[in-house]
Amino acid sequence: MTPDDRALVDRFLDMMAAEAGSSRHTLAAYRNDLERTAETLASLGKASADDLARLGAAWAKLSPATVARRSASLRRFFGFLIDDGLRNDDPSGTLPRPRLERPLPRILEATEVERMFEAAEERAASGEPAAVRNLALIELLYGSGLRATELVSLPRGAVRAGQPFLMVRGKGSKDRLVPISSRAEGAVGRWLQLVPADTLWLFPSGKSHLSRVRLFQVVRAMAADAGIAPERVSPHVLRHAFATHLLSGGADLRVLQSLLGHADIATTQIYTHVDSARLVELVNSRHPLATRTR
Length: 294
Description:
Blueprint: H1 3-18, H2 24-38, H3 49-53, H4 55-58, H5 64-83, H6 110-124, H7 129-144, H8 148-152, E1 165-169, E2 175-179, H9 182-192, E3 204-205, E4 208-209, H10 212-225, H11 235-248, H12 253-260, H13 265-268, H14 276-286
């Protein structure tokens, strides 16, 4: 990458951090995409539409998801250059646009989740600290649909007695309210009795909080305890189960979007595939024309 291109990328990332509130991980992903692209161009900032059109061949061995992400990064980058008056034209129209098939989420049946809770509750009844903690973890994962990072980074005082909602900071440093069930409140309350008073975290580990990797291991071990294949279960699978089972129970899609913290409702709509039969029945029974005869 040329010094001029590097300066432009740094300026772009400064804007993304200050104005868009992009996280450190998002900024790193943008930088990587732009730097990898610059390796195949004489100049990133001065690239023409023809230059970008040739990227399709250069990216032929990459996955469609990677090509789509890099193209999106470049479109955002050139949009920034235009907004700041550094370019008068937008060459990004010739970038590759691979067709992506959104994978369906892995889910657990309600009966399988119930088995995980039964096993977790039985272990927690012993009072063993790790078991008490694990029950609180699964209650928040499945009961509130938290992302792994959101869960492990909860502060010690995040869950308060009698407070039915929890404020979490999700992707893009956006705050949202999520519900706390009485079950989860009780499980967390029992765990708090064992948490050192001087810690900053609800789930402390060493000098910081429980890691995402450790949470992944804990959840898989809990699945194995319940007689479920560990490879089928992860923190994100429990988040999927939260969404799927709420939708199946009649939750509104917009409400679900808010609970999950999805910026785009199209992301939330993927959960409708699991309950298509109920949706068809709903249309047939509730639509104004459902009872009309020919």
